[in-house]
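SAMPLE LOG
Freezer: B-3
Tube label: C17
Construct: single chain, 250 aa
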Amino acid sequence: MSYTRRLSILAFLTLMAIESFAQDDSFVLELEVGSSWQSNNDVQIPNDQTADRFDLTDILGSGPWASFRLNGIWNINERHGLRVVLAPLTIEERGQFDTNVRFDGESFLAATPLDARYRFNSWRLGYRYQYYDNNGWRLWAGATAKLRDAEITLRQGDTRASDDDLGFVPLLHLAGEYRWSDRWHFEFDFDGLAGGPGRAIDLSLKVGYTLDENWRITAGYRGLEGGADTDDVYSFAWFNSALVSAQYRF
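STRUCTURE (predicted):
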């Protein structure tokens, strides 16, 4: 069983356990699916004169690729809530460079096919506080602990280079919802922080429709942008997604 699948099952069981302790209308489970494109994906590893900076879109292309995430919210009471986000992303494609490229101690030839793998899984646990509820608006602010599971691998014949990273990233969380009728609403959510050697931005904008007391559907846009600029790695990517989701409220 793959690492991603094991984590997904564990998180799903955790969400079900939380739901068993929640009161009516206090738990939200959302499955979000979409098509994702990458605008750029610049890489240099290591970030010094021994390696070359290149754009992974030259090999992977711009997309689209299918994407999904699972969001869970436990509204403990009217003000306080907990969030769980499972957002896996893995892309594997075959392409070639226009020029010779040095990456992670290995050299890859131009005009020669190679295989590339890009992984950027995001597992998050967060807290949020509802600080406004008036005139159709509800607004939240909080913090998110993000576990970043990243990998870039290139393979060309017998030559293979791979760089992976598993690390913790603290993020600011903002979210809001505006209802302009009994059925229709607008919502946004943001996890992000910038400063020091890098940044991380995850922003969604959605329009939603309420089907009944339990079910909602939404459609909209999500943007993911960020990376790091350190002695060991330079890596910045920007992904855009057109999405739809189904929300079930317990």
